[in-house]
Automatic annotation (TrEMBL):
GO molecular function: oxidoreductase activity
Domain NADP-dependent oxidoreductase intervals: 17-308
GO cellular component: cytosol
Residue ranges of coiled coil: none
The entry's keywords: Oxidoreductase
Domain of life: Bacteria
Entry keyword Oxidoreductase: yes
Record-linked PANTHER family: NAD(P)-LINKED OXIDOREDUCTASE SUPERFAMILY PROTEIN, NADH-SPECIFIC METHYLGLYOXAL REDUCTASE-RELATED
Keyword Amino-acid biosynthesis recorded: no
Name recorded for this polypeptide: Aldo/keto reductase
Length: 337
């Protein structure tokens, strides 16, 4: 497994990261199989695992990961997230919530420190300085080794860097955006900004929520009902299905599975540190691991660019972050009177 530096943190991580969003009730309720998936990934050379407090009721994914890492914690770079809603009044990026919730994540993970603590989404209701000040105290107190962001627009990443420099606070060292053959928008601004500030990048959903597995092609298997409820527009987007068909032909002619083509593409960009694998079962993980050494030549990459141009998104994913400036009409319409 290829190892890469996580930005300028000095931490070395595998080019693929095990994502645990589907551990527990949200995907695989068999805790034993989930633990075996962690062990299988570690044995294959992965040393990077990503989770979040909101993955599963009551932080179930973190609890499973904590159990799986018993006796192996020192060999693993553990990343988790804060900000998502854990119940009424329990969420966001305020100092009050961060300093309380980090203790719960530490308890569930059965560890005394978190290697990478990430803000799951921007919080327009909290000043960045308030949030970064709280995260800085966690770093100085030894509970967190490095801090990062997830789903941040380029403008928010830059603003956070400026606030940290001005106030002498811990810098965001990583960003976790979505990136795949179908969603290349981060190539325009987010990846260049991360490169400029020496940030590591771990990308989520390199298989586009399952569309790039090849299982959901026209006339084939229907997506799981849970997936249809979770991202219905994404799973039914005809433009995406048309692009998937073209990518499938490219993969076949290159002697690859569509899944392995998609994974190799996700880690090919020089600004990407690691791509997050999100298996639900051991068999899915085994297939993903079989493709982690795949490399794409320039001819294949040129054909990919012809299907979805660099910096282009075929269409958004339902769960992608949308800033209030687009969702709140009052912020984009003048009032009259």
């Amino acid at each position: 497994m290829q190892m890469r530096l996580l930005g300028r943190t000095g931490i070395k991580v595998s080019a693929y990261c095990l994502g645990t969003m589907k551990f527990g009730q949200i995907g695989n309720p068999d805790h034993g199989e989930c633990v075996r998936m962690v062990h299988r990934a570690l044995d294959a050379g992965i040393n990077f695992v990503d989770t979040a407090d909101v993955y599963g009721p009551g932080g179930e994914s973190e609890e499973i990961l904590g159990a799986a890492l018993r006796g192996r914690r020192d060999d693993v770079v553990v990343a988790t997230k804060v900000n998502g809603s854990m119940g009424p009044g329990r969420g966001g990026s305020s100092r009050r919530w961060i300093v309380a919730e980090v203790e719960q994540s530490l308890r569930r993970l059965r560890t005394d420190h978190i290697d990478l603590y990430q803000l799951h989404h921007p919080d327009p209701d909290t000043e960045l300085e308030e949030t970064l000040s709280a995260l800085t105290d966690l770093v100085r107190g030894g509970k967190v080794r490095a801090v990062g962001s997830s789903n941040f627009p380029a403008s928010e990443i830059v603003a956070a860097q400026w606030v940290s420099q001005r106030a002498g606070l811990a810098r965001l060292r990583t960003e976790q955006p979505t990136y795949s053959l179908l969603n290349r928008g981060i190539e325009s601004e987010i990846l260049p900004v991360c490169h400029r500030y020496g940030m590591g990048v771990l990308v989520w959903s390199p298989l586009a929520m399952g569309l790039l597995t090849g299982r959901y092609r026209p006339g084939g298997e229907r997506p799981r009902e849970a997936q249809l409820r979770f991202v219905p527009r994404h799973m039914s987007d005809e433009r995406k299905h048309a692009a998937v068909e073209q990518f499938a032909r490219v993969a076949e002619e290159a002697g690859l599975s569509l899944t392995h083509l998609a994974l190799a593409f996700a880690v090919n960009h020089p600004a990407v540190t690691s791509a997050i694998l999100g298996p639900r079962t051991l068999s899915q993980l085994d297939d993903l691991l079989a493709g982690t050494e795949t490399r794409l030549d320039d001819d294949v990459l040129d054909r990919i660019d012809e299907i979805v141009a660099p910096g282009a998104d075929v269409g958004p994913i339902d769960v992608s972050y949308v800033p209030p400036s687009l969702t709140d009409p009052k912020l984009r319409r003048r009032t009259h009177g």
